[in-house]
Design a protein that fits this description.
single chain; mainly alpha; two-stranded antiparallel ribbon; 69% helix; 3% strand; flat
């Protein structure tokens, strides 16, 4: 009986999803403001003390859903993903562009030099710290430094994507079969980055999710 009503049930589900999406879109501004307030209280203190946290990676919501066992408890999922964290981080960091690394090193040198110069002038002449928008400039230079450091590969890094992907699979258990023996390719690297994204990207996607989710 259920099979005979599949088309009707599918249409009803489609209408329900459309209705929920429209309701979500109407309430999006209110939800967006709430998201901003929530993340301001949750992450402001962390980012103030550790701005480099934005350059770290975290498992995305999509990745957590994809890799979750049936009826798996949250703490069990967290334990598995935490065991795979270092391998996943090393895997993505093993892909680097020589040109991007050179540019990042030069930008890091310039931004670090300017930051040190401003701080040195501020110690010598306290009026420097009263310059308008100086805090924004310092924050911007710090952010540039964080981003540049993520683009510079570790000098002692060994290229072994297949071994790292095998180690990741040993903990997460689920990965697309077409990734087999293809861990060294850019395509797999980009697809895996959807599972394991930068913290900054994760926060932005969460903040703007009220507008993106309905679509």
């Amino acid at each position: 009986a259920v099979r005979s009503n599949q088309t009707e049930l599918a249409q009803r589900l489609s209408k329900l999803i459309l209705g929920v999406a429209l309701l979500n879109l109407v309430l999006a501004p209110v939800i967006f403001v709430w998201q901003l307030i929530y993340f301001s209280f949750s992450y402001a203190n962390i980012l103030r003390k550790e701005p480099g946290a934005l350059g770290l990676r975290t498992w995305s919501n999509y990745g957590r859903l994809y890799l979750r066992h049936f009826n798996e408890l949250d703490h069990e999922l967290d334990a598995r993903l935490n065991r795979a964290y270092d391998y996943a981080d090393r895997y993505l960091n093993s892909f680097s562009s020589p040109l991007a690394a050179v540019i990042a090193k030069n930008l890091l040198f310039i931004s670090g030099g300017l930051l040190l110069l401003i701080l040195a002038l501020g110690i010598y002449e306290e009026h420097v710290f009263q310059v308008e928008h100086l805090l924004v400039i310092l924050a911007g230079l710090g952010a540039i430094g964080v981003v540049c450091r993520t683009l510079i590969p570790d000098e002692n890094l060994v290229w072994c994507p297949e071994q790292l992907m095998t180690a990741i699979l040993a903990h997460v258990h689920y990965l697309p079969s077409e990734w087999r023996q293809q861990a060294h390719t850019t395509k797999v690297r980009q697809e895996f980055s959807n599972f394991f994204q930068f913290k900054a990207g994760y926060l932005l996607s969460e903040i703007f999710s009220p507008f993106v989710t309905p679509f």
